[in-house]
# Entry
Amino acid sequence: MRVWIKFAMDGALRYLSHLDTMRMWQRAVRRAALPVAYSQGFNPHPKMSFAMALPVGVISHAQYLDINFTKDIRAADLENLQQVLPAGLTLLGWRIVPAKIPPLMSLVRAACWEQKITDAEAVEKKVAQLLSRTEIMVERKGKKGLKMINLRPFIYDLTIKGQEQKLIMLLAVGNIGSAKPEEVLSLLHLSPNNSLCQTEILLGVGEALQSPLAVCLREKEVSLNAKANYYQLRQ
# Structure
């Protein structure tokens, strides 16, 4: 049985590395006595992975775990799992996934981020100027040294919630290219602060984006659920 689990991480857990977060989940699954499946080979390990790595210091309301079990599990089993998870990690939802669906990590195409701001009107003007550009060159450090990339195709949307004084960023993730929230904040002459939060992860479904718990899954196929919320990419 394969399951996608949505969870939130905040408080002191925001400072855990990707590896430490995985170890925490492995311990919790063992303590809850869940029948997790293991890989084959000389060094077997639990068949579980995250949709994407969360930057250290950032809270999340939408992290996802892709995990395989040797037996069927029930809602009560996940309730037991919540009891052994540390404070600051909250299970938000889950769904059964067909075994032949590609790994969740390979399906992720975007992430939504938000951060509180102090001057919404001023930031809104900067957002409009940024989105009007067809090319936004930034310097990024890679394995082969520094390189320049055009960030504009990977900024899907930037909006301001004036009453809440929040900047909302919908940014690309994955092999096709990505934009990091700190890069966008820097372009707007802002710095990441403690309010920076990942609010959702979205899968690519044709020319649309939709959350892992909303998409339709059938055998090997992932398709759009037109009855649930989704984001239509611009043509």
Notes: DSSP finds five helices and 14 strands in the chain. The longest strand covers residues 59-68. The chain has two domains: 2-97, 107-232.
